[in-house]
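Weekly modeling sync, notes
Attendees: S.R. (lead), two postdocs, one rotation student

Agenda item 3: backlog of single-chain predictions. S.R. asked that every request posted to the team notebook include the full sequence so nobody has to chase files. The rotation student volunteered to paste the first one in as an example of the format we agreed on. Action items at the bottom.

Example entry:
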Amino acid sequence: MALSSKELSALLSLLSEEGLASMTLETLSLMFQRSFNRPDHFKIGTALVLLLNEQDLLPGSSQRVAALFLLYDMFRSEPISASPFAAFFAQLLAFDDSRQNAGSQLAALSQSEKHFLIQLVTTPPRELFKKTPRQIALGELPPLMPVDISTVRVALLERQTDLPVMSQSGKSCVLSDPSPETSRDSTAAGQTADALLCGTGVKSVVDVPFEPIFMRPAPPIYSCDDDVMWLNPSEAKFVPEWDTAMCVSNTGGMEMRKVMAKAFRGPLVLQQQQQVLSEIEKDPKLVYHIGLTPAKLPDLVENNPLIAIEVLLKLMSSNQITEYFSVLVNMEMSLHSMEVVNRLTTAVDLPKEFIHLYISNCISSCETIKDKYMQNRLVRLVKHWSFVVVCPR
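Predicted structure, as returned to the notebook:
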């Protein structure tokens, strides 16, 4: 993953303050695409992350704006949560300036840089890319509004749970100088970047992960008068030390995600349904780690309504329950969706607005059916269902 000297030189040339003074973000994107092939984008992005964390290597505000834009632009065609640098964006936005002196490896962003990153993560206006990085860095800033990146955080958490624990605990091998020099020598900065990213004479630090070492201490040497004493033990009684945690599976969450992936695509067999319901009953918090999102709820309702009912009941205390209700209300009317809503109304107190809106949507669905026989049948079904749901309340 190390860069060649030619690649690093091309990257630093794009990020030079002289060139960025008159180069718009659109032009910067075109020049970047011409300089680097798509398979190399992740490697270049990793180098940009390291440069952004070291203010001595990328001191200019316009340079940092350009680097943030390139990290976004490389994967612009994908959702922001799917970008390999989404976690880095989330950390920068959540970073508190007071933590910079508390051992954090992140460099604090200026107000203009943070405002620019917020626009990239949310919905950047088209006019933004017609500006130069210097204009963005020196432009007037509107009041900085709080940004909601909870969706990105949830997607990152789901993706992180699939990684081994050791990989989740990795740290950067590069530590920032706590008291950098005030004078910035561009030649020295270039040499430092070359040593870090190109591995001049040694292996590049970007290829050396710093992870916790799995310690395997050697057993102590057994010392006794007779080396073969253990062959004929003289002790009369021995009590074995059992490891009660040995061979106990801790992959229940991963197994549940696999089963739920099947549940979104089609009906589960009875044994699989009972397995899912049993695991959810044992650990109600498991519903937050099985891969269910509001967008996947209609598939679960149509294919496995019983599981959908139990999962929604466990999610009633979640702050996302209104999103699930909204999807349930607006999905196409069917026997399974009516069954799910009916069971929910008998189990918990649902908002009246939700019930009224669902009934209204059912009536609208009946009005759009052209087949008179099917229309009359569904009208009677909706009428009976509405009477059962509304009257007990």
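Discussion: group reviewed the output briefly. Residues 97-103 have pLDDT under 50 and may be disordered.
Action items: rotation student to repeat for the remaining queue; S.R. to check formatting next week.
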